[in-house]
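go over this:
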Amino acid sequence: MIHECGHYFTAVWRGIQVHEFSFGMGPGLFSKRSKSGTLWAFRLFPIGGFIRMEGDENDLRPGDVPDPSRNFNTRRPWERCVVIAGGAIMNILLAWLLTTMLLSANGILDLNSPVIGNLMSGYPAEMMGALPGDRILSINGQAVIEWSDIRKTLQELETDETTIAIRRGDEGITLSGTISFSPEHGARLWGVQPSKMRYPIHKAAYEGMSYCWRISVMTYQGLWQMITRQIPMDVSGPVGIARMAGDAAMEGFWTLITFLAIINLSLGLLNLLPFPALDGGRLIFIMGEMISGRKFPEKWENRIHLVGFVMLMVLIAFVTWHDIAKWLAGN
């Protein structure tokens, strides 16, 4: 719905008439037309939604009062680009805001510095006298620089007897004890968790933007690798996403916020792909018009988008069936 809000607000900003804003898809449940002439409708299936703008001549409904002066198709190319890209931009903006909120209000695990955040009850770290806030300096003489060095060094130990040098405040302390191999986990477990790092709001905003950029690059790289078969195809449809959202919600509020940020970012990025029927495909036609000065024949553009839409529906149906099969199999 945030995606559709992006289209709606940019259309209103550029003076384009919006006939309908629909929450959900399928048969209508109830609706109300506002003074501006927009029909606000709620539909049966809570999967996305859509807006209908003036210019969708083939999609006029009873009660619509067309205003040719507010037609989408008569707007300048850059204005149409803004409206088409508005949905994806809103998704990406929300992902950034959610990430900023997460980094500022909740914080994230600090995997750079080897500082203990929490102790796991019943594990060697607690018995050896480690405390939250201790900075690990070395394990059996091997220097520890960042958090990942702890696990790596423990797995390379040739003996269970372990000596760990830490810094507690201004004092250097040596802890000694036994860290045995756990067949259940397939590793030596000392029983410590990293500390949380919270950012001030301005730093959180910057780090949130940096995080979204890195995930964006990784998303496009992963998509390319799947297309070129460098890695196995691994995608989820509405059913799979709903299951993951439920799992995230059960794990806690901030896990759900993290999941929503990733989903919004992914939705925004995928919608910008230059594929027919996606926003990115529509942008390609408008950009071609801006470069050539000539508009692509509307009849052929609609046919191309229709083919793309059918292909997307087939893909979604296949992925959804795959999600349901995995669910029934207990995976």
Notes: DSSP finds nine helices and twelve strands in the chain. The radius of gyration is 27 Å.
